[in-house]
């Protein structure tokens, strides 16, 4: 059932995340977040594709191990669109519901101050669900890199602000319709690279 496919990304990522949780984890943190991705353009056969920017929302669950590294699961969603621009052809636009689930390793630099910088890197899956029912949904592999700052307000509440770079692997043919025709084609393996920022308030649930 195509409607159930949007849950696959989160379920698979959650399984991987639970496998990383260690018995000596000493802190569990929840962070509802919101953010924004900027426009991104990449080349395709006989043209280009514009991935329109926009806001997204989601959350992060973090487990801090005794080694000082957070193992994080982040799940996010947004509604966006892609604009396919081809030579000697009319432009085509497709609206998408994009959901991504990533497993990150996050290292926070302890400066013995309220504000602490951090870096994170990880990977996961992206589920692309066209708003039009005549196009197939797709799952893609993604890499994620970020850096930011955490500001402690109290012992259990603080702010988290960061930049985010996500690179999603493109397929040779993308978004086939019921006739088997692809919306666009790439000559070789291509990546959609998106840059943005995000922020939220974190809550330490277990410490």
Provide a descriptive summary of the structure in words.
With 207 residues, the chain is mainly beta. The chain has one helix spanning 8-20; strands at residues 27-37, 40-44, 47-51, 54-64, 69-86, 92-108, 115-130, 138-152, 157-170, 173-176, 182-185, 190-206. The strands form two sheets. The chain has an eight-stranded antiparallel β-barrel with strand order 1-4-5-6-7-8-9-12. The chain is elongated, with a radius of gyration of 19 Å.
Provide a short characterization of the protein structure.
The chain is mainly beta and 207 residues long. Helices cover 6% and strands 66% of the residues.
From the N-terminal CA to the C-terminal CA, the straight-line distance is 41 Å
Low-confidence stretches: 1-6
What is the string of helix and strand elements? HEEEEEEEEEEEE
- DSSP summary: helix tally: 1
* Relative strand content: over 45%
- Major sheet summary line: 8 strands, antiparallel, barrel
Q: What is the share of helical residues? A: under 10%
Mean pLDDT: 84
Shape: elongated
Based on the structure, what is the oligomeric state of the protein chains? single chain
Number of strands: 12
């Amino acid at each position: 059932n195509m409607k159930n496919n949007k849950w696959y990304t989160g379920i698979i990522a959650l399984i991987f995340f639970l496998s990383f949780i260690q018995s000596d984890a000493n802190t569990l943190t929840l962070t509802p977040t919101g953010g924004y991705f900027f426009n991104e353009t990449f080349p395709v056969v006989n043209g280009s594709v514009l991935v329109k920017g926009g806001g997204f929302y989601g959350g992060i669950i973090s487990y801090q191990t005794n080694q000082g590294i957070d193992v994080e699961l982040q799940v996010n969603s947004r509604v966006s669109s892609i604009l396919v621009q081809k030579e000697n052809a009319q432009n085509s636009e497709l609206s998408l519901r994009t959901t991504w689930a990533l497993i990150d390793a996050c290292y926070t630099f302890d400066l013995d101050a309220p504000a602490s910088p951090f870096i994170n890197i990880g990977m996961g899956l992206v589920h692309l669900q066209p708003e039009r029912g005549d196009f197939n949904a797709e799952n893609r592999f993604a890499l994620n890199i970020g850096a930011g700052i955490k500001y402690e307000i109290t012992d259990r509440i603080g702010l988290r602000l960061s930049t985010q770079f996500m690179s999603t692997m493109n397929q040779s043919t993308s978004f086939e319709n019921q006739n088997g025709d692809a919306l666009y084609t790439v000559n070789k393996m291509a990546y959609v690279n998106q840059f943005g920022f995000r922020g939220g308030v974190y809550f330490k649930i277990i410490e």
